[in-house]
Design goal:
Blueprint: E1 4-9, H1 16-24, E2 29-34, H2 36-45, E3 55-57, E4 63-65, H3 67-77, H4 85-109, H5 114-139, H6 152-164, H7 180-191, H8 193-201
Parallel strand pairs: 1-2
Antiparallel strand pairs: 1-3, 3-4
Helix pairs in contact: 1-3, 1-6, 1-8, 4-5, 4-6, 6-7
Amino acid sequence: MSAYEYHYFNVRARGEVGRLALAAANLEFKDLRHTREEWLEIKASGKPPLGQMPFLVTPEGKTLAQSGAIMKYICKKGGLSPTDPWDEAVADQICGGVDDLRLSFIKGHFEKDEAKKEELKKELFETTLPARLANYDALLKGTYFLDNKLTYADITFFDFFNGFMNNGQPTVPDCLSKFPRLAALYEKVLENPGIKAWIDRRPKTDL
């Protein structure tokens, strides 16, 4: 096997950040998208380390699960990780903050009670998201979050605002309009040749 194998469902969701990282790192990979039936067979085989997707299979045949662990491993292989321990901690801080936003989005998106759903959506867009964007704007010191070079912190930021806030469309999402420096960061990540090529060719999905 000469390429990485990336296993997930036919959606972006929690799996897309790994695909974006592989594309940005210019690592050859097979984008394997499974139906629920296929996944049940794969899970029963014991191949996924934690019995969940996404999971990565390296060219050497090693397997790795958890989207964050996969992304960080890929970025270290591809030179997209901070080299300083403090900078790495700051990058992890940014990713953790994005995870908070993702969980808030998912909680509202899948809420069945319509009144509660609107309440959660309002809280996210009027309170949680603007506050977190102000935090990120303060943390952004240059073209990218760290060292003026692309790292997994920028990819994670882009993944959320592209995939969750903008339904996968490459245009800058409206929620970044009041934060021009963050909008410029979004566009800068999109300019990465690997990421741009991936977004141009990836399957169109609802999630």
